[in-house]
User: Fold this.
Amino acid sequence: MNAPFGRWWASALAVALALALATPGAARAQDATAYFKQNCVSCHTIGGGRLTGPDLKDVTARRDHAWLLRYMPNPKALIDAGDPTAVQLFQEARGVLMPSLPGMTPAMVDAIISLIEAESKLEKSQFVGVQISDRPFTPQDIERGRAIMRGDIAQLAGGPPCLSCHTVRGVGALGGGRLGPDLTKVYERLQGRKALSVWLSAPATSTMQSVFRDTPLDADEILPVVAYLEEAARQGGEDSGFGRVTFLLLGLGGAVVLLAGMDGAWRRRFRAVRGPLVEDAGFGRAHARGGDR
Assistant:
């Protein structure tokens, strides 16, 4: 092997080895980022303040690494065991229990902790959360939010109307869908506009993730939707289900009308076919009697 080729081969081998060593770490960080976006941002920010759960900026300075390894895969187990820190977090979240998430293996916990540490060092983390205005909502905001939820105004990214799956008290004569929960009091359940805004920007449920992954709500759409849901919560109550009764009655009425129309059409068709047959049969019998004579 000549010297130039040997040097080239050694350099290529060194680059390949460096890439091989770096790839697992890069993939690990990428996996943790995707996992955090999918499962954590609806309740936590990194540097954006508290939502349902605490702000995770510099959490490793506040919590022991070994404790995080035990808590993150199964928070309920530590709460049930009476762990004072876990119980305190549960109380601060007003009784909202952090779920045991699928795929939260020790390796994933380590990767997420590393991700939080890296994001905490940045001037502004990518997980700072939606920064929504705290100005008072106007009647125009509320009406636009209602229109977006009903589908009267198309969403910018082309997502489906919220009422395809959800309902809100007083949203319309027929109400909304029943696949998802009633959203009349969601503003209260999520404790205000900030947490609700973050949830709308990154829904935590698998059904909504599959729907809105490629068609997320725009920031300018989130504000009026929050305004409408705040107004719905302020008015109180739950959806009465009257829309379902109305829809059922309309369906039954439509079925009756359809059956009546089909019956009328069949009767006309029957007469149109039966008349000539009867007439021909009568003519045939008369002709036969004449022949007998």
Observations:
- The chain has two domains: 3-120, 139-235.
